[in-house]
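Slide 14.
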Amino acid sequence: MIVRASSARLEGFATKLRRPGMQRSIARTAGFNVAAAAAAGLGGIILARTLGPTVRGEYAAITAWFGVVLVVGAIGQPAALCFYVAREPLRAHDYVATSRAMMLTTGAVALTTGMLFAPLLAHGNPPVTLGYRIVFGTSAVAFVSASYTFSLQARDLRRWNVVQVTQPLLSVIAILALWRLGLLTLDAAMVVLAVTLSLQLAWAYRCCRETGLAPGHARIALIRPLAVYGVAQIAAVAPQFVNAQLDQLVLSQTVPPADLGRYAIAVSLSLIPVPLISAIGNVAFPRLASQRAVTGGTHRLQRLAVLTSAGLAVAMLVPLAATAYWLVPLVFGPAYRGAVPLLWLLTPGAVFLACGKVTGDLLRGRNRPVIVAWAQGLAAVFTVGLLLALLPVLGVAAAAIASTIAYGVALAVMLRCLWRLPEGGDGSQPESPGGSRAAPDRAP
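Slide 15: predicted structure.
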């Protein structure tokens, strides 16, 4: 009876995408995503114009390596938490506490490693080394914040949106103040990142208290389901991160910082559609995860989500690429004109990336993170191979070409698998901590 009712709910899920409630959720999430991206973009413009291409390149290198630490330390728990908080709401607060304890343990290892390697990554440059150590020292804060933030995605999407936008808004305010005071430097920007991440953690914890997600108790029995989903997710996130960041990581060690600074600007411009488009996946993921069976309505939802994401990406990126020759020097300064041809190379890849993010969320919502892992892993192979082959010949342009091809490969694999998922029982019902199938819970 429960499975039949759940099947009936999901059968109408595709049509709900066109109903006011679903539309409001997607529109509201898109609005917050765009606001966060706009704040980050404004901060990036100020940093680029104030610091110049060389220091902007050093900033890009530090944040890229900080991203490595975050991916390793998080061990796939943000997605695992969202899935299990949506699937088992009665034990959500204990899932949050357990996941937080897991991330603190692995995060300590990632933090120590990052601090030790800071001088090597900075090539012995003392100000840059200090910048690395400032952000690596904030890793633990970021891990704990993730445990609270992504549990909110499944429990209260409105609060999750507010928490997500807190850090970039506070950051751009601080950067504006430092710029006006003439105090904006590389290390000052790193301090801003550390402080705003701490404030985001405080706000996320308060929201979790208000929604019953905290306090909770870490349970040994919950480690296994979180770890299983997290391992599959990290298997997807690690190669996905390679596809997204390996170009900048390699360039940070092989080309002048000014070249990396221009490339980072091209990448940031190519990612403009992502906050808007990813809202579709942000809303669909926890809603799919809360269901226990799928029907033909799922396939209609998938087609609509994928086609909409692709159409929006093309509509936003083609005009941007067409006007980039005049727009980039106007906004960032003449020193960044070299970013224009890089943006042209990245534009097709950005369409693949935006569409791939939505496709990946659809697969995760149906408890298929392993498919995302395989797709991103294959794409990572293309990224590494193309960088090795093209970087000595083409320089920084090789990174743009490698990224575009890798994003296309990942999207093609995920789409093929998504269309082939069966109807009827989804096979996504989680196991209870004791090893049997979990009893049905009320969807949030």
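Speaker note: Confidence is low (pLDDT under 50) at residues 1-20, 424-444.
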